[in-house]
Design brief:
Helices cover about 30% and strands about 45% of the residues. The two termini are about 15 Å apart. Keywords: Membrane, Transmembrane, Transmembrane helix. InterPro entries: PorA.
């Protein structure tokens, strides 16, 4: 009787040990990957909002109308919509490197709903490390670029407290973003990263010379850009919970000094979008922690106990057989 029970306990203990190992080394790594489609609970499309104010905003339509083209304290709303290209992610090239492909559209509008700027990005990235790839027709506004660094839409799983190369879509290159500390957001610990982009020329813009201190009827003025970007990131899943950008773009004159401010604005994640990201990170992070540590640990300890008890019962001589 005891021998039979012992054999059963040995079998159950072995099963729990195998289960603990399978969860720890197979199931959790399989789950710790970016989905092929973001926003699976919202039909495969993810939408986020950011709001803020333009301290200064140049309005070219007002210039045409003969009005003051400089607006101040303008409310802004930025909408980003992202979907996954599942078909492309199933190609041999994407599957070979375990890539996800996301198409994302952003639209910045003022308080009248008028678009100030808009653009698209198509990113192909490693589903675990978020490293960008030049695969799969990745582009910005339809133009091929050289991708490097990590995905601007997502950090890697198991984020480290270090400096990452984070891709800036305005500069079209990766720029270091530094870990600066941790914060608590409604019970969720997040890592804070800060990226400071100094004044950099991003192109030229043809404008009436009078706007940039020139006597010429028309000139091509250097367009300058600077930004301070602060991101709050879930360290388990790599999701960007919230962020703030303090961005400025302007036109420089022939002497290199600022002549016309195009936009000077601060825009940050809207509260409802932020809370939804916090809730998702809590749910997903808790699941990964449970499957990756709690359940395997309990299974391992209980499995060892059952094995020991089972072996003892098997080895013990049953008096009924004497």
């Amino acid at each position: 009787m005891k021998r039979g029970l012992g054999i059963a306990l040995v079998g159950l203990g072995a099963f729990l040990l195998v289960l603990a190992g399978a969860l720890k080394f197979y199931a959790v790594p399989a789950l710790s990957k970016a989905p092929l489609v973001p926003g699976e609970s919202t039909g495969g499309i993810s939408t986020s909002l950011a709001v803020g104010t333009a301290e200064t905003l140049f309005d070219p339509s007002a210039l045409v109308a003969g009005e003051n083209p400089i607006r101040t304290n303008v409310p802004l709303t930025s909408t980003r919509t992202t979907r996954g290209d599942v078909t492309e992610s199933q190609t041999d090239a994407a599957k070979a490197d375990d890539l996800a492909i996301y198409d994302s559209f952003s639209n910045l509008t003022d308080d009248t709903g008028t678009t100030i700027s808009a653009g698209t990005i198509r990113v192909a990235f490693d589903r675990v490390t978020s490293e960008l790839s030049n695969c799969c027709n990745a582009n910005i506004d339809g133009e091929t670029v050289e991708w490097s660094g990590i995905n601007p839409l997502k950090f890697p799983f198991n984020v480290e407290q270090k400096t990452y190369d984070y891709f800036d879509t305005t500069l079209v290159k990766a720029v270091p973003i530094e870990f600066t500390g941790t914060e608590d957001l409604d019970g969720l610990e997040v890592y804070v990263f800060k990226q400071s982009i100094p004044a950099t020329q991003i192109g030229e813009q043809e404008v009436p010379g009078s706007l940039v201190g020139s006597t010429e009827a028309s000139v091509k003025a250097p367009r300058m850009y600077e930004n301070v970007r602060t991101l709050q990131v879930d360290p388990v899943t790599g999701s960007i919970i919230a962020g703030v950008e303090q961005q400025k773009q302007w036109l420089a004159g022939a002497d290199g000094t600022e002549k016309l401010t195009i936009i000077k604005a601060t825009v940050g994640t809207e509260d409802a979008t932020k809370q939804a990201a916090i809730d998702d990170a809590k749910t997903n992070g808790a699941l990964l922690k449970t499957l990756g540590s709690t359940v395997p640990l309990v299974g391992f300890v209980l499995g060892l106990i059952l094995l020991v008890v089972g072996f003892v019962l098997v080895a013990r001589k049953d008096p009924s057989t004497s």
